[in-house]
């Protein structure tokens, strides 16, 4: 403590006990915002602690057979590791199943789905072989081709009789708490949205005490966005593309010259002040349950969409429907669109309170 007092005294400041406590606690995560000779805790502002955890920056122009194999191997292994960390069962590989009508737990990637009367047949594959799994009833209703799933089944020789589909899902946990707050919007469509509504929102944001704005795709006119972001250099903008900004998925970051814009890929994962924020243009709770955020439009050398880390906030758009959803302590938010129903979302990272903003 004495070292801190001496350091600030040599810089021409005296510290109140509250200011000293703040400095000792926050270390280098703050800066002097205002104050005279005597600094109290209100003389400081906390710097945002930001880590880019996932950001897709390169894509190949040509895809080889080797890339195809690498991608599906990567997807299987990543999802298998998630399943093994979440579901405590004695899993066996598909080539180890027998004809003894015994219980078995297996992991596989869905290669084909067939309907046979009231039954659904999933063709599952792992790194050893493939085998059909027959389900009677709705147990496999939410399964899609290319999903990696766990299955509780009864062995039957060349087939398995499925009893239950076990999705990787996310754990039940207490909400993670951080510091600060941010505003979340999507689908600005600046090329088509009414100028009055655009100005109304950005004027409100410029006046607000919120520093950070996250934009989940479909901004439209990039030059207009840069001009709007450049009106206040004290604000920070985190932006991903949507399908109107680039057709590929995943999509590499857009190019901006404005320095207070951080351009990220679709999808991207950012940690801000202790809160992990997944930003993706199109999303649903079902994808959290599957721990995978959609199918790529082209084959990649690795699976970029596996949710190996559980986000605290999922920020999405696309539907133009404002939503605030809680799924197992993950806050999912969609602000709607400036083209229709637009309700920016503010999230307090400390309380994890999420609400629609009153833009005035």
Give the CA-CA distance, first to last residue: 45 Å
Low-confidence stretches: none
User: What's the helix-strand series?
Assistant: HEHEEEEHEEEEEEHEHEEEEHEEEEE
Assign a percent range to the helix content.
10-25%
Radius of gyration: 25 Å
Question: What spatial form do the alpha-carbon principal axes imply?
Answer: globular
Strand proportion, as a percent range, falls in 25-35%
Main sheet makeup:
6 strands, mixed
Structural class: alpha/beta
Which CATH architecture of the largest domain would you pick? Answer: 4-Layer Sandwich
What's the CATH topology name of the largest domain? Purple Acid Phosphatase, chain A, domain 2
Number of strands: 21
Count the DSSP helices: 6
Average pLDDT confidence is: 91
Please state how the strands of the largest beta sheet are arranged side by side: 5-15-16-17-19-18
CATH class of the largest domain: Alpha Beta
Number of domains: 3
3D architecture notes:
The chain is an alpha/beta fold and 360 residues long. The protein has 3 domains: 2-46, no CATH class; 50-61 and 171-356, Purple Acid Phosphatase, chain A, domain 2, CATH 3.60.21; 88-166, Beta Barrel (OB fold (Dihydrolipoamide Acetyltransferase, E2P)). Helices cover 19% and strands 30% of the residues. It is built from 6 helices and 21 strands. It has a 6-stranded mixed beta sheet with strand order 5-15-16-17-19-18, with no helix packed on it. A hairpin with a 5-residue loop joins strand 20 and strand 21. The model has no long low-confidence stretch (mean pLDDT 91).
């Amino acid at each position: 403590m004495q070292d801190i007092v001496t350091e600030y005294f040599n810089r021409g400041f005296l510290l109140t006990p509250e200011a000293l406590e703040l400095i000792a606690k926050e270390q280098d995560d703050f800066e002097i915002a205002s104050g005279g000779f005597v600094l109290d805790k209100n003389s400081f502002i906390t710097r945002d602690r930001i880590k880019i955890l996932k950001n897709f920056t390169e894509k190949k122009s040509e895809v080889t057979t080797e890339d195809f194999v690498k991608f599906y191997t990567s997807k299987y292994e990543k999802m298998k590791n998630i399943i093994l960390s979440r579901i405590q069962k004695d899993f066996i590989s598909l080539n180890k199943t027998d004809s003894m009508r015994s219980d078995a737990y297996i992991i596989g990637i869905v290669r084909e789905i067939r309907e046979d009367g009231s039954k659904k047949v999933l063709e599952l594959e792992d790194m050893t072989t493939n085998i059909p799994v027959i389900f009677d009833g709705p147990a496999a209703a939410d399964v899609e081709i290319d999903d990696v799933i766990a299955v509780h089944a009864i062995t039957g020789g060349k087939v398995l009789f499925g009893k239950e589909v076990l999705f990787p899902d996310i754990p039940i946990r207490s909400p993670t708490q951080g510091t600060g707050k941010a505003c979340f919007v999507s689908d600005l469509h600046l090329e088509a949205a009414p100028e009055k509504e655009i100005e109304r929102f950005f004027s409100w944001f410029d006046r607000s005490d919120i520093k950070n704005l996250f934009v989940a795709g479909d901004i439209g006119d990039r030059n207009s966005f840069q001009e709007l972001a450049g009106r206040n250099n004290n604000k920070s903008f985190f932006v991903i593309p949507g399908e109107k900004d680039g057709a590929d998925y995943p999509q590499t970051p857009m190019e901006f010259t404005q320095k207070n814009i951080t351009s990220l890929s679709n999808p991207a994962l950012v940690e801000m002040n202790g809160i992990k924020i997944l930003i993706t243009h199109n999303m649903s709770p079902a994808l959290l349950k599957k721990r995978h955020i959609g199918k790529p439009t082209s084959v990649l050398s690795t699976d970029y969409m596996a949710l190996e880390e559980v986000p605290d906030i999922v920020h999405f758009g696309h539907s133009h429907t404002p939503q605030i959803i809680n799924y197992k302590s993950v806050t999912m938010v969609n602000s709607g669109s400036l083209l229709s129903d637009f309700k920016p979302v503010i999230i307090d990272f400390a309380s994890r309170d999420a609400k629609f903003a009153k833009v005035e």
